[in-house]
Amino acid sequence: MKALVLVAVLAAEAHAFPTGTQFELDALASDGGGGIAFDGAPRFVGHTCAVCHTAAPLQIETRLESDHAEVFSDGWKPGQQYHMRVLLQDAHAGQQYQADGDNCGFAVMPYRPCDQNGFALEIDDLNGAPKGTFAPVVNNACATGMPPDVDIHIFADGTAITHNGAHHAQLAWDFCWTAPAAGTGLLTAYIAVVDGNGGDGTMAFPADTIGDDVSAGAVPIPELGGTKPMTQSGGCAVGGDAGIGLALVVLLGLLVRRRTVLAIVLAVASGCVHVRPHQREALARRNMKFAPDPTEDELDLHMQEAREGSSGGYGSSGGGCGCN
Predict the structure, then answer these.
(1) CA distance 184 to 3
(2) What's the domain count of the chain?
(3) Rounded to whole angstroms, how far apart are CA atoms 110 and 312?
């Protein structure tokens, strides 16, 4: 009974992580993420922000940009430092608080909700191991250390980055990524973004996880001179484990402005899915079968074999009426 009460209390008090450091805190002792970035990477079993942020309308999009357009088309160069940016597009949740910026929350009276948005990202190799190093951006340049007032948080082990929560109403986050050594091969950037709706609008509950919009996707980044990833067609891409079907379309193109649009990840409610090896265990679940009763399957196949003289997976064909 005590265990059930504890689970119920934890579920009721679940809320968003307004600061990046909470991702690394203990889940029970400090109400943190337990070291999980929730960016959809295989090492986190594909978990994204949708694990906590429920009832998402799935209307937003996520875009990944870089100052070097060739990183997505030609590939990354060993040791090259890239200035990248994660963008939240089509933001709508908490839009009424967008113009307030940081002039919100407990910093003003009367209290006014904040438009709290966030992201998480990591770049992994084919084995699911994070590769490369991250650095903050200050005055549009890659910086060393972690200066104050930056809007990203780098995990202590350097494996992932998240929003820092230093500012509100953010729709873009800049960071620098230094590519790993030669021979690492094809890499994948796993990204998850949250469009916060401001909670229930009161001081007592300034942020919740209901109704926020979420988007998640995976962007392939080949190594220069290595094998390029296969071009996807028909909008097929990786599906997640959060109970929401996602179709992720990766597009490459050019902007006439300073930056180059390098990848667009569209989250929608349906689509075809490429199932990865670590996700195939889900196919063995009972609710994944068209006919979940194996005994009835065998009986149906027996009748089919008897009538058609064909052999299936449960036995050999036979004669008679097929009624036994």
Answers:
(1) 45
(2) 1
(3) 72
Determine, yes or no, domain membership for 301. no
- CA distance linking residue 297 with residue 309, whole number of Å: 17
Asked which of 181-185, 207-211, 266-270 is least confident by mean pLDDT, the reply is 266-270
Cβ contact 190:248 at 8 Å: no
The distance in angstroms from the start CA to the end CA of the chain is 49
Distance CA 276, CA 5 (A): 36
Query: Tens digits of per-residue pLDDT, 34-52?
Result: 999 999 999 999 999 999 8
CATH code for the domain of 260: 2.60.40.4060
**Residue 310 placed within a domain:** no
Asked if residue 306 belongs to a domain, the reply is no
Per the listing, tokens 């992932």 go with: 160
* Total-model pTM: 0.68
Cβ contacts of 69 within 8 Å, gap of 6 or more? 254, 260, 262
146 contacts 154 by C-beta, under 8 angstroms: yes
Q: Would 66 be classed as within a structural domain?
A: yes
Range of the domain at 115: 2-284
